[in-house]
Every structure is written in C-alpha cells, then in structure tokens.
Design goal:
The complex is a heterotrimer of chains A (about 525), B (about 200) and C (about 90). With about 525 residues, chain A is an all-alpha fold. Chain A has helices at about 25, 30-60, 70-90, 95-105, 115-135, 155, 160-190, 200-235, 245-280, 285-300, 315-345, 355-375, 380-385, 390-420, 425-450, 465-495, and strands spanning about 420, 495-500. Chain A is built from 16 helices and 2 strands. In chain B, helix 1 (about 15-45) packs across helix 2 (about 45-55), helix 4 runs antiparallel to helix 6 and helix 6 (about 135-170) packs antiparallel against helix 7. The longest helix of chain B is centred in the last third of the chain and has 37 residues, at about 135-170. Classes of the chains: A mainly alpha (about 525), B mainly alpha (about 200), C mainly alpha (about 90).
Amino acid sequence: MINANDNPGYVNYLNYRGKYTGIRAWILSTDHKRIGLLYLYAITTFFSIGAIMGILMRIELIAPGPTIMGPQTYNGLFTVHGIIMIFMVVIPGLSVVFGNLFMPILIGARDVAFPRLNLFAWYVYMVGCALAILSQVLRHGPPDTGWTFYAPYSLNTGTNVIAATGAAFILGFSSILTGLNFIVTIHRMRAPGMSFFRMPLFVWAIYATAWIQLLATPIIGITLLMLIIERLFNIGFFEPSLGGDPVLFQHLFWIYSHPAVYIMILPAMGVISEIIPTFSQKKIYGYRAIAYSSLAIAGVGYLIWGHHMFTSGMSLVAIWSFSLFTFIVAIPSAVKVFSWVGTMYKGSIDLKPPMLYALSFIFLFMIGGFSGLVLGGLATDVQVHDTSFVVAHFHYIVFGGMGYAFFGAIHYWFPKIYGKIYKIRRANIAWALTFIGFNLLYFPQFIIGMQGMPRRYFDYLPQFQPAQVVSTIGGFIFIAGFILMVYNLIMGYRKGEQAPANPWHGTTLEWQIPSPPPLENFEEIPVITEDPYNYK
Amino acid sequence: MEEKPLHHEEPRDDFAAKMGMWLFIFTELLLFAGLFLVYSVYRFQYPIFFHQAALELNVTIGSLNTIVLLISSMTVAMSLTALQKDNKKLALTLLFITILCAVIFLFNKYIEWGTKFEEGLYPGSPLMLKLERGHLLFFSLYFFMTGLHALHIIIGMIILLIAWFKIKKGTVNPGKFMLLENGALYWHLVDLIWIFLFPLFYLIT
Amino acid sequence: MNVIESHVTSYKTLGIILLLLLLLTTITINVTSYNLKLWNVAIALGIAGVKGYLVLTYFMHLKYENRIIRAFVLVVFTLFITIFAITFIDYLYR
C-alpha cells in the first residue's frame, strides 16, 4: 500500500494539466472525479435555489391568508420546489456525486466503463436543469400542478407543463445513462480478487440503485411523453371526457416514482454503511445482510407504488396488496438499522462530523420510516392522505435521510477529495443548528397533519398557526446551519490544513491512495485478498 | 524522478460494450412497455370498440411490414456472420438489404398513415374527437405506438448506415466489429417490438 | 479484457429461424379468421412470444451469450410481467 502524501511528485486530478486549460479542462474532462465535482457544484446550487423556494413557502405559511404572495404563486412555488429537489437534487444526488467520485476507486478501477458517456450524461443533466428553470419564465407561467403532474389538471392548466415535463424527461435520460455506466463498470472493472462480496457496501448500494435508474426511469419517460402528446393532440389517454382514466396516469407515474425514492435512499444507506464502521473502528456487522437487503429493497420497491394512491379509487384487492407489501419493504430497511447499531456495539466510537450526520440519519430516517407505516396502513392513511403529515413524512425520509447522508458523505470524503480539512468545531456547530432546525421545521407538521392541515394549501385555519410559526422558525435555523456548513467547507478548501491520506483510519481503497487522488487513481491496480472493513 | 506514465492504455473491452447495449435495449423495451400497459388497460375496458376499430387497419400492409422486418433481422444477423468470416463484400450487401428493408417499412407506414390522414383521422383531428371513446383510444394508441416505433426504425437505420460506411472504410472489421454487432442488436429490438405491435393492432379482428 | 467472439452463427441457422418466423406469422394471421373468443388473444400473444423468443435466442445471440446477459433478460421480463399483473389487480377487481 502506498503511504499517501509521501510522494509529493505525483499529479493529482485537481492539478492535472492536459489538453485543455481553464474552464474547458473541467467541462470537457472525462475524469470521473472531475465529473463528480461538476455534479457536486451544480447540485449544491440547485439545492440552494430549491431551499430558497422552500423558505419563501415557509414565510407565506407563517400566517393564514396571503402573507407575501397569492395562491397561484404559491402553487407554482411548491411545484418548482418539488421539481428541483426531486429531479435535480435528490434523485441524481448521491449517485452522480459520490458514485462518480468514489465508486471506481472503491472497486480498484481507474475510471468508469464509458468515461465519455459519463460526461455526456452530465451535459444531458444540465440541459434538463436549464429547461426546468426555463419552465419558470416562459410565456405561460410556472406550472402549478405539483411535481406529480396529475391528470386531468395537468392536461388542462394553461401553464408551462410541457417545458417542465420535458425537463423531467431529459433528466430521466441522464439518470438512465449513469445507471447503465455504473452497472457495466461494477461488472467489468473490479480489481483482481474483488468478488462481489468483497465490494464495499457503498458499491453494493450504487449497484442496486443503478438497476432502478435503468429499469424504472423509462416508465416515467414514456408517461411524461404521453402527457405532452395528450396536451398537444388530445389523444385521450388520461382525459375522462375522452375515455381516458386519470388513475392510469397515477399508476404509470408512481410505477417509476416509487422506485425513485429507493434511488434516493439506497446510496444514502450505502454512505452510512461506510461511515459507521470507520468511526466505530469496527468491521461492519451483517455485511451480507446489508448487501442482500439493498437488492431486496430495490426489488420489493417495485411492488408498492399504489400506496400513493389509496384514496384514488383503486380496487379493494389492489389497495390491500399494496398495503401488505409496503409493510414488507420496511423489513430490509430495519435489517440495515440493526446492522449499523450492531456495528457500533463495542466499537470505538469517534463523534466526528461524518459520524454525527450518520447518527442523525438513523434517527431522522427512523422517524420518517415509522410515519411511513402510518401512511401504509389503509385506515390510518385515509385520515392523513394529502395532509402535511405526508409532507413531514417524506421530508424526514428524503431530507433527513438522503440529505443528511449527503452532508455526512461530503464531510467524510472532503479530505480525500481536496486534500484539506475543514474546521471540526465549526462543522459540529453547523450540524447542531441544522439538526435542531430540521426537527423544529418538520415535526410540527406531523401534528397539524393529523389534525387536518392539508398539504399544498396556501391558506389554513387559524388553529394551525402556532405550529406553522414554529415550523418557519425551524426553517430559518436550519438555513443558518446550512450556510455555516457550506462556509466551513469552502473555507476548508481555500484555507484548510493539509489532510493526511487517511485521516479517519478507514480500510477501504480510497483511503489507501493519496489525497487528492492521483489522476488515474492507482499507480498499479491493487490485488484484493481480504474482505472490506478489516479493522485490526 | 522517473517519468511515470500518466495515462494507462486500457485494453478494449468488447463485452462491456455489448453489455452496455443490452442494458440500453432494456430501457427501450420498458419504454414501450408503458405503452403496452396503456393498451392493455383500455383494451380490457373497451374490448368491442377495439375490435371494431382494428377492422379499419390494413392487414395486408401490416403483414407485409412484418415480413419485411423479419427478413431484415435475418439479413443484419447474416451481415455480422459475413464480417466475422472476413467476407466484407457480402457483409456490405446484406447490410444494404437490411437498410433497404427499413426504407420499405417506412414507405409502407407513410402510405398507411397517409390514407388515414386523408380520411381525416389523425391525433387531435375533429373527426377523431367525435369518435366513440374506445375507437379514439385505439387510434391514439395506434398513432403513438407505431409512430414511436417508426422513430426507432429511423434511429436504427442511421446506426446501420454508419456501420456500413465504417465497414467500407475498414474501421469496422473482423477484429473490431462491436459497432455492427451492437447496431444489429438495436435493429433486432426494433423487430421485436413490431412482433408484438402487429397482432395487437392488426389481428384483433 | 477483450473477449473475441468464439461463436459465429451460421447462415443456415439464421435462414432456418427466418423460415420459422415466417411460418409463425402465417399461422397467426390465419388464426384471426376463426372466432375463438378469448383464445384469439392468447394464441396471438403466445405466437408473438415464440417469435420473440426466437429473435432473442438466435438473432440476438442470447443462446450463445454469457449467462449474465441471460440473467438480465430474465430480470427485465419478470419486472414487466410483475408490473402488468399488479396494475391489473386494480383494473380486474374494480
């Protein structure tokens, strides 16, 4: 093993000077690490824009009635907030940033299977994002359908639905290409000796996710295409007056969008499976269980889309089946939580920022997960469907889950990516602010949701106001924490101390190479002779 | 210090390219699967109307197109065999026939659709909107699915044309034929979709 | 690692498969002239399934391909069937 950073003469991927210089050296680079950073900066930008939309909604909701905007604007806001967060941030999220940055290194490869396709996928992503932004400013006004584009309203509203759904279509294509690339990479480019069961769990997660990206996304692609064609030509697929069935749109939409949430959460769980062993200095408990549970979640996740549609008018047999399988899919997730806790047991716990985020992931994800069971039960769902209970649920799961895993991942891998380290104390304070803010922001929404506060409503009964105020305050506290976090990371990059190659004493391959990684990752491809997470 | 090479030459991995093409084919199959699902649902809900509407389609042209496409699948597969056996001339001829079959298919489609358009039957037309709902859905599905399929024929044709020129030039050859093999796979996909489209639209009378 | 094609499908095999496909096409067209109610759909889809199988196995070379590709095809096919079946649990029992 190279003892990193005692070879100062190596060229790292940030310093490398090739055919191009300046900005072209980045936007024309096929290096998976540079592409990962291109995605990182894009996603951070879009997340911030989406967060601003969120804060504007929170300000509006601080009091009943119009506060800073009218209802049409509010409808446009929650729609674009959803489109940005779902299609531009959370679905690509961990896969395209950390999958690109680290999956090849974790399997001992120099790059992905199709580096040029990788860069092309980033361009497709950026075009999709541009079109989504464009949908906000084109002639007919921002879409007001919600990111779910339900028919028949999405067929009849005069707003820029075609631009927005076109954007989602293009973004889906980018997702497919990334999934394809990662599947081939993992099958064909593992280092000698790295069997599937010697791969780190983050790679297992990326693998399972890639299959969902590949197989589920085409369904939303064709569905959005149907929506666009129906808007243009009245083909009648989803318009009741033309013989169509709006519930069929919901089926098609959720056949993708439910597996899509596993695209969001599986890599997140993969990150947690990397962080916890490192900061417990202990071998992961239940490696095979976690690996298999990733595949199980991906598989069973295809069977439960109807739990978004319990009140839509489906048959009794259907809602019963969907509810049953929804409960079943919780099991593999629980397997992971048990394994993580089992890993920490009798480990040497180090509460560095990545570990703080990983632990809060478990806490927030579990709250989100349990509330999911409330939603999965038919009788209870009827009470809370389309209320802010649902909003709280998915924010805990997606934001508390995938979001916190993302924060954990950037804090974990930052020293490897940039060769510098941020200020630990500042990171801890930022974490605390975001954690407190997050819970103040979303927990009240469970309560008023159960009491009847509808979602996607810009006005509400006065009895809900106290909770709305707490929630808005929480939102601002979170934003303060987030700003501090980003500031800390940027300062770490610009002025941070040099980081050693293995600051957290990890055992996976990325910690065995210098920080930042050399251009082609390994001088010589390693030969793998043991399982990962072998802490002595 | 010694100059270590920054760039390692990765050996070409043809199987990776093939795997990539198969994965892409899966996405195309699933794309059409969504449409087949819509078809199934509405056929289930409007069985008599679908049956009636299907009578308006020309089974002869549909059958001809099926035969043409099946032949083209064979010729493209044979073209690959020819190239692998280093028979460049035969490979080019067979590939040319394949592309010709594609043109014939598209021409037939043009005639078919043209007849319908002349009758006033096209997506969104006043006549269409006045139809019985089951008939409307049948024809909407017909135009959408055969249209999307035709788009894929065009894409496949372009890939095969590129392959044709590269074989002629020699950059696709017995030692390096992934472009033809993967292009042929894409072509077979287009044939596969039609194998299911044909009975579902033309033969439900 | 480069794997040179070890199997080249013979012209004869490809020709025979085409004949089979054309035969099946003829059968499926002719069956429509008989009114067998629900069996018409089943037979049409069944024949299409056989034709599809022939195209996949011989034209697309699956018979001679690495097992992993065949496993992938099976997964996709299963997914397809599953999605159809579950959707119809709604429509059949409404």
